[in-house]
Design a protein that fits this description.
Radius of gyration: 22 Å
Strand content: under 5%
Number of helices: 15
Helix content: 40-55%
Strand order of the largest sheet: 1-2
Order of helices and strands: EHHHEHHHHHHHHHEEHHH
Amino acid sequence: MSVRASRDSSPSDEPVDPEQQTQACLKRRIAELKHDLAANSGARRTNARSNITMGHIIRKAISFNQPVMAIIGEHDRRAQYAEDHGGLDGLQVDDEQRRLYNAYHELMKLIPGLKQTRYGRLQQGAAAAVGDDNNAIRAAIIAFVPKPTAVDDCLDPESRENRGLEGAVTGRLLCPVEYDWDDPAIRANIINGKTGYAVTADKWPRCIYRYHQYDPSQKFNGFLKAKGLVQVAMHIFTSPSSASDANVSGKYVEDSVEEENIDPSAALELPRKKRKKTSGQPKGSVAAKHDICHSTPRMIAYAAVQQHFNLSDATHWNEVDGAFDYSVYYNNIVDFFENAPGRTSQKKAQELLTWWDRRIFSRSVGSSTSSSTQANSSVRDMHAELEAMES
C-alpha cells in the first residue's frame, strides 16, 4: 500500500466524505465512554489532571498550532478510507494533511495510551503550554543573546522594551539573511517596513544561524545551529540550568568534529570540560517526564518559534505578528526535515539532528528526514538547492 503525497498546498483531489470522518469520530467516542464507565470517579479525576499535563507536550514536541482533534481526525479519516477502499492506494494527501499525520505518529510515541485519554483535556493542556513558555523564555533569553555595547540597550526581563527590529541587539538577530543589517539605509527600510524589505516567515532570520552569519554560497553552513537557539531548546526540554552559557559553550567546543562547528576564538578561550558519563535528563524536566531522549524536528521548530517571538517586541502571543506568520515559520522548519526531496537532503537533515542530539542530550542519535518549503527568498532558495542536489 502506498500514500501518494502532493507537494502543492492545494486541497486534495478527493476530499474525504464528512460522514466518513464523523463515523470514525463516533466510534472513537463510544470507546472513550466505555472506558469512562469502567473507571471510578477518583481515577477519572487523576486522568483529567494527567491529560492536561500531557497536553503541554503536544505544543512543545508535536505541533504548536494544530488542534488535537485535527491531528487525531487525520488518522481517523485515513483509517476509514482504508476500511472503505481496502487500503490507502489512491488516497490523495496535501501538505497540511501530511503534517497532521506525522504529528499523529509523534503523538502516539509520546502518549501511547492515547485511545484511553480525554481529548478535550489534552487540548486544554496544549493551549496553556505556549503561553507558559513565552513567559519563561522572555526573561531567560537575555542570557542567550550578545551583550549590548551600551547600558541603554540592555533587555528588560519583564518587558519588551529594546526588543524587536528597533532593538540594538534584537534587530540584527531578527533581520532576514537576505538583507545587510549593517547598511544604515537598508536597516532603516527594514525597521520602517518599506516595500521590498518585509520581515516574513518566508525568509530565514539570522538568529537561527551559527554566529548569526549567513553565506549565500553555502546556505546550509550554520543553519539551525545558533547557540542561542540551542539554549532556548535546552531551557524548554532539559532544564534552565542546562542552558547556561558555560554548559552550552563547553559542548560547542568539545563535541564539535566538523570544522564549521567550531569558532576558533571560542576554542582558545573556553576550557575543555569532561563530559558526564550519563545521558539522563534532570528529574522533573520535560524530557525526563515524557521519556524524550533525542531531538526531533518539531522540538527544534518549537524552540525556534519561542526564540523569535521573545526577541520581538510583541506585547502578547499571536500566531501572526505583523507580516510574520509563526505557523508558516514552524512549518518551514518542520518541512526541512520531514518533506525531503531525496536521499541527499535526508542525509543533511539526519546529520543536523545528530548534531542537535550531541548538544541537547550529549550523545549521537539519528532521526528523520529533510527538506524545505514553498516559501520565498532564503527558504525557497534552500529548497531549490536541495532539489538540485537530488538531480
